[in-house]
From TrEMBL:
It catalyses: 2 5-aminolevulinate = porphobilinogen + 2 H2O + H(+). It is an enzyme of class 4 (lyase). GO terms for molecular function: porphobilinogen synthase activity; zinc ion binding. Residues 65-104 are annotated as: Disordered. This is Delta-aminolevulinic acid dehydratase. One of its GO terms (cellular component) is cytosol. It comes from Medicago truncatula. Its EC number is 4.2.1.24. Homooctamer. Residues 65-74 have a biased composition (Pro residues). Pfam families: ALAD. Pathway: Porphyrin-containing compound metabolism; protoporphyrin-IX biosynthesis; coproporphyrinogen-III from 5-aminolevulinate: step 1/4.
Length: 413
């Protein structure tokens, strides 16, 4: 039985319940007369068989043609002939094509996971940072606005601000840190006026404002004063919140600062402002380029009496428990890639969101390796960010935020 037939268009009325999917069949060579005075080409209709007709044909053995089974690909000459291994589970089955790998991917990366660290200064011009190719001290009125616009275009809507403060404003007690008309509060107000939905993180620490270059007030014998520093940090956090900051981020590593800051913010009516604590901030050698960017190297000594020993693992749990108890909303690990074990430790032991900071040294090494053609910069960049997510980071502070987001969006610039 033919699956379809072609009939000329005649005055006969076709039953729409019997004939379905009628389509014109062209070209036509004959013309038929119609009741109309004008001549026009008749239409020929293809009457398709029903599903039941096709099923009946298959049951009767009239199976339609299909492409043949593809041949087994040949192995290269010399390949040994062996009996298949008696393996019940072969994990490679789930990796055999790009579609399989995508379907079973456990960790994903999105521009929404990025917080973009941006350096700002009082000048109009954007000044390149030698140790961090592609990064600049941005003029707070113009260059910063343009960079934020670029980031938002590719889905990065969170930034963290780091100021380069004029030396003339630096003091041993860092009072400029809570000047409500200082560089950071002014910048926050400008950004919120331009982009009200932008999520602004701030850095809470005295080192950019201190004439000593330390995160806290330095006593004459070189000791970093804890409680007095916390007092200053609370005023800094409140000034930033009043300007419109969404998340204040104490990076100083003073004891008790999260609880004191939470109380100070709440007392001023800023219960809605979050605290991202630098919970496990290590005394790392990976921070060098950052200190060049802000001109914030310690005038003497180091930061080992308040930042954590890179050799310590369990100590991170102590810091985590204190920050949770004191009211932190987000826990951050710094640096990122060399401390994946610490990120996982916090992820497995806390219900709070975990942040990781891919610091300046990590960024600069990847940039340098790419420039020397020793690595594929883009692939290493994306792999490093994926590894931070896999370790347990919900958000990543990274100088690659704009570049990586463009890759994720398929944009090449």
């Amino acid at each position: 039985m033919a699956s379809s037939s072609t009939i000329p268009n005649t005055p006969l009325t076709l039953n729409s319940h019997t004939y379905v999917d009628l389509k014109p069949a062209l070209p036509l060579k004959n013309y038929l007369s119609f009741s109309s005075s004008k001549r026009r080409p008749p239409c020929l209709f293809t009457v398709r068989a029903s599903d039941a007709d096709f099923e009946a044909a298959v049951v009767a053995g009239n199976v339609p043609d299909a492409p043949p089974v593809p041949p087994t690909p040949a192995a290269p000459a010399g390949t040994p002939v062996v009996t298949s291994l008696p393996i019940q589970r072969r994990p490679r089955r789930n990796r055999r094509s790009a579609t399989h790998r995508s379907a079973f991917q456990e960790t994903t990366l999105s521009p929404a996971n990025f917080v973009y660290p941006l350096f700002i200064h009082e000048g109009e011009e954007d000044t390149p940072i030698g140790a961090m190719p592609g990064c600049y001290r941005l003029g707070w009125r113009h260059g910063l606005i343009e960079e934020v616009a670029k980031a938002r275009d590719v889905g990065v809507n969170s930034v963290v601000l780091f100021p380069k403060i004029p030396d003339a404003l630096k003091t041993p007690t860092g009072d400029e840190a809570y000047n409500e008309n200082g560089l950071v509060p002014r910048t926050i107000r400008l950004l919120k006026d331009k982009y009200p939905d932008l999520v602004i993180y701030t850095d809470v620490a005295l080192d950019p404002y201190s004439s000593d270059g330390h995160d806290g007030i330095v006593r004459e014998d070189g000791v970093i004063m804890n409680d007095e520093t916390v007092h200053q940090l609370c005023k800094q956090a409140v000034a930033q919140a009043r300007a419109g900051a969404d998340v204040v981020s104490p990076s100083d590593m003073m004891d008790g600062r999260v609880g004191a800051m939470r109380a100070a913010l709440d007392a001023e009516g800023f219960q809605h402002v979050s605290i991202m604590s630098y919970t496990a901030k290590y005394a790392s050698s990976f921070y060098g380029p950052f200190r060049e960017a802000l001109d914030s190297n310690p005038r003497f000594g180091d930061k080992k009496t308040y930042q954590m020993n890179p050799a310590n693992y369990r100590e991170a749990l102590t810091e985590m428990r204190e920050d949770e108890t004191e009211g932190a909303d987000i826990l951050l690990v710094k640096p990122g890639l060399p401390y994946l074990d610490i990120i996982r430790l916090l992820r497995d032991n806390s219900p709070l969101p975990i942040a990781a900071y891919q610091v300046s040294g990590e960024y600069s090494m990847i940039k340098a390796g790419g420039a020397l053609k020793m690595i594929d910069e883009e692939k290493v960049m994306m792999e490093s960010l994926l590894c931070l997510r896999r370790a347990g980071a919900d958000i990543i502070l990274t100088y690659f935020a704009l570049q990586a987001a463009r890759c994720l969006c398929g944009e090449k610039r």
